[in-house]
Predict the 3D structure of the following.
Amino acid sequence: MTDRFFPGLWRLHVLTDRTMSRGRSHLQVAEAAIEGGADVLQFRDKEASGGRLYQEALQLRKLTRDARIPFIVNDRLDIALAVDADGVHVGQSDLPASVVRRILAPGKFLGVSVVTVEEAIRAEKDGADYLGVGPVFEARGTKPDTVLPLGVDCIARIRRHCRIPIVAIGGINADNARRVREAGADAAAVISAIVSADDISHATRQLKRLLEGTGQSGGEIVHGASGADPDRR
């Protein structure tokens, strides 16, 4: 297994979203994001039927396997299992993380969305491989039912209590990506700033550089933040 499959070394998760992609398919978005250097592809579709999700996920599974990058399915454990995805990401209203962990095969990744320190501690105890923390910034354009922005302080609070990698999510773009890394996040999960971009590959490449600490934001060189143990699985 290569370093690409160690969550602590991931920097940029790209989430597909048909409602934000300006008419481009999940596959088209994924191809461009991979070309731009996405570390992880997460398949997200809140509206499609199970049958359509399965067919779309099969295409993405082949693409990511050929590209040798991790493929995560958002929310739908059944779809993740059906296409042999590398993992699944669940929220607080989905199946409990402890149950998902028991169902997933050994070596598969489990991501869990958290807002509070208590949720983060429980997710780590229940077997999560990484935490999705947020929304850090305003994100109600992609998640209308989400809570108000938590700010970067939520990352620092959770970082003090948890060892597993933190993936910041919610309104992250080229103007603020530096801040989530400085606050202690290992990576960022991005939807609209990439999926809605005119040039998806370019937007991906720009954010990847910022998160790796080699890009510029607001005229400043970005320095990487501390991360968790990359072998923590």
Q: What stands out?
A: The first strand starts at residue 12 and ends at 15.
